[in-house]
Amino acid sequence: MSETNFDAAEFRRALGSFATGVTIITTRSADGAPVGLTVNSFNSVSLNPPLVLWSLATSSLSLPAFQSSPNWAVHVLAADQHGLSGRFAKRGEDKFSGLDTEAGIDGVPLLRGCMARFQCRTAFQYEGGDHVIFIGEVRAFDRNDAAPLVFHGGRYAHATLRDPPEVQPRSAHLEGSFGDHFLGYQLGRSHFRFLAQIRRYLTDAHLSDEDFYVLSALTLKPGLSTADLDAGMAGILDESGHRAVESLLQRGLVRRGAGSDAELELTDSGRDSALRVIGAAKAVEEQVLQRLGPGEAPVLKSLLARLLNVIDPAANALWQEKNLDAGAPAAARMR
Ligand SMILES: Cc1cc2nc3c(=O)[nH]c(=O)nc-3n(C[C@H](O)[C@H](O)[C@H](O)COP(=O)(O)O)c2cc1C
């Protein structure tokens, strides 16, 4: 039909540059079984009358169900529902197995925990190349405040609002200067402010910041040797880390196995202290993150994880199954 001779993969990539939300559209088959699939061709059409549209591939196993049932429901997915999206993007499997659904209009299965749901009735249906376009009249809807799941360039993505209202506009004299938008300033100040809120719990437990770093490393990865800690914490702990290990050993919070570079492990009281402070630190984290907007915490964490990966690729190695090579410079070793 088309006179154009597109490179199909390039055409797909170009279409994928249009960022969309992600929905799951459900209905019931003629024999009453729940049917559904992941769809990002959803869009609004009209406010009055309330109309929405989406397109379904003619190759979809769900097509007969949508052609026989005039009722269907669109579920706009929240950022934490990418697993559900993956499940409904699989072909023909029992996608509803183990899912807690409720019954909508005409018994259409409704999923829970979504940002918005539109219960619709097919108003028009058109052929559109290798897809069928459904236009539905919205008969009921509900919505929740949450962050949306986004699809862009063939991958799931995060969305966050620009210029949240609580961020003050920058003063004119700071524009273009080295200052409050400098990454080092933002990270450093956030780090010290964050740690300051945890420090009173450290003080109660008679632990220094460095003690806490060593204890939490050993909680996550028991059996680290001093060389592992050296390599993993190089530039962060160094000499202060050596002192922390010695002090923790003396106070019976950490013990050393046998051997030349013996593994360090927490004693019962060391584990107890570490878990108490880690619990308090998690509570502080929760309070701080709650002050961000919906969905901003996962975006922040995802970007910080990427930054850490770029700036300190060795950080991941500390938490890998295999111990780090004891490849740190001799001067930085803790033995
Ligand atoms: C993010 C995303 C968006 C999708 N959008 C659509 C769409 O708009 N229309 C469609 O027919 N398939 C779409 N799919 C593909 C279907 O979900 C997939 O082919 C599914 O296996 C169909 O299941 P079925 O054959 O059991 O009906 C999308 C998949 C993903 C991951």
List keywords for this structure.
3-stranded antiparallel β-sheet, 335 residues, 22% strand, disordered C terminus, Arc Repressor Mutant, subunit A, Pnp Oxidase, Chain A, elongated, alpha+beta, 7-stranded antiparallel β-sheet, 10 helices, binds flavin mononucleotide
Task: Describe the protein.
The strands form four sheets. A seven-stranded antiparallel sheet has the order 3-2-6-9-10-5-4. The longest helix is centred in the last third of the chain and has 23 residues, at 268-290. It is α+β, with helices and mostly antiparallel strands and 335 residues long. Helices cover 36% and strands 22% of the residues. The protein folds into two domains: 8-157, Electron Transport, Fmn-binding Protein, Chain A (Pnp Oxidase, Chain A, Roll); 181-332, Winged helix-like DNA-binding domain superfamily/Winged helix DNA-binding domain (Arc Repressor Mutant, subunit A). Bound molecules: flavin mononucleotide. The site of flavin mononucleotide has 19 residues, from β3 and β5.
Task: Write a brief structural summary.
Helix content is 36%, strand content 22%.
The radius of gyration is: 27 Å
DSSP helix fraction? 25-40%
Which sequence of SSEs, written as H and E, runs from N to C? Answer: HEEEEEHEHEEEEEEHHHHEEHHH
Whole-number average pLDDT?
A: 87
Distinct bound molecules: flavin mononucleotide
Task: Supply the number of structural domains.
Answer: 2
Secondary-structure content class? alpha+beta
User: Oligomerization state of this entry?
Assistant: single chain
The shape, in one word, is: elongated
Pick out the low-confidence regions: 322-335
Reported for the largest beta sheet, the result is: 7 strands, antiparallel
